[in-house]
Design brief:
Blueprint: H1 27-41, H2 46-53, H3 57-70, H4 87-99, H5 105-111, H6 118-127, E1 131-133, E2 136-138, H7 143-156, H8 161-164, E3 169-178, E4 185-187, E5 198-200, E6 203-216, E7 219-226, H9 233-246, H10 251-258, H11 260-269
Parallel strand pairs: 2-5
Antiparallel strand pairs: 1-4, 3-6, 6-7
Helix pairs in contact: 1-3, 2-3, 5-6, 7-11
């Protein structure tokens, strides 16, 4: 006997409830429940539907009452298992994450004596809006460094591109081995360059190689080396190769110079601290 299947929607979900899994709301399951209602609307009794479909009369009554009372035959949301962590546990965890964002979930679980697995700890952090990201690695900045950066930025921020196109930029750089730093950081979105989320480079004192280079808007200058005798020649050759690869592409230097106003403005906004550059 033909009958019309009605449109069925999810019932409203209360706070703390979770939707049923996909298995409970598979299309064939919903279709079978709708068939119960369709047969009932077609005039069949509960006993007849039970015999026809090979299901218990209790099940037939359940879905007929569900449809008459709530207008659907979907599986209701379920309360689920209670959280293993208390509100106090979660508050302590979030406070610790904001104080020391580069600590691991395993360490927090152990140090805070949380009654859960580190996977659950990570889930609570994510629920609070904290994402596990690779921290930005920056040079160490003392208060004197920040003040000098801020002073320089405030002094030159008003200059336009024409000014910067006639400036020669030069610096000496020393590459050295560094100690390992935290590989991940739990932070809120758009807070990558906040002081607590920065991974500062720490110097070991074992300098590998130093050089002095310069550039301007038209391209790079020459690379001058200060290399200890024990330094491998391969390092020098590779660095020189990379430096010279910039020369045929002057747009790299041009773009860097053209970004000076934005860079200075970023330093001012960060009060001399780190920026995205």
């Amino acid at each position: 006997m033909a009958f019309t299947l009605l449109r069925y929607g999810y019932p409203g979900r209360r706070h703390g409830q979770r939707p049923p899994n996909n298995r409970a709301n598979r299309p064939e399951v919903i279709t079978r429940r709708a068939l119960i209602v369709g047969n009932y609307d077609a005039g069949k009794s509960i006993n007849e539907i039970s015999r026809l479909m090979g299901i218990s009369k209790t099940t037939v009554r359940l879905w007929i009452r569900r449809y008459e009372g709530e207008g659907h035959v979907m599986t209701r949301p379920r309360s689920g298992r209670p959280k293993v962590t208390s509100q106090d546990d979660e508050d302590r965890l979030i406070a610790a994450a904001r104080q020391s964002p580069k600590t691991t979930a395993v360490s927090w679980t152990r140090e805070l004596q949380l009654p859960c697995h580190p996977i659950t700890t990570r889930r609570r952090l994510q629920e609070a809006g904290l994402d596990c990201q690779v921290p930005a690695v920056k040079e160490q900045l003392t208060e004197a460094n920040k003040l000098a950066r801020l002073t320089f930025a405030q002094q030159y921020v008003q200059h336009d591109i024409n000014f910067w196109e006639n400036v020669i930029f030069t610096d000496e750089k020393s590459f050295s081995s560094v100690a390992a730093t935290g590989r991940h950081c739990w932070r809120l979105p758009n807070t990558r360059y906040k002081a607590r989320n920065i991974s500062e480079r720490s110097r070991s004192g074992r300098v590998s190689v130093s050089f002095n280079g310069w550039m301007w808007a038209a391209g790079p200058g020459e690379l001058e080396w200060q290399i200890p005798e024990k330094t491998l020649e391969a390092i020098e050759r590779k660095a020189q190769e990379v430096w010279e690869s910039i020369r045929p592409r002057p747009n790299i230097c041009t773009n860097l110079v053209n970004s000076m106003p934005s860079r200075l403005q970023g330093v001012i906004e960060a009060q001399g601290g780190w920026t995205k550059y």
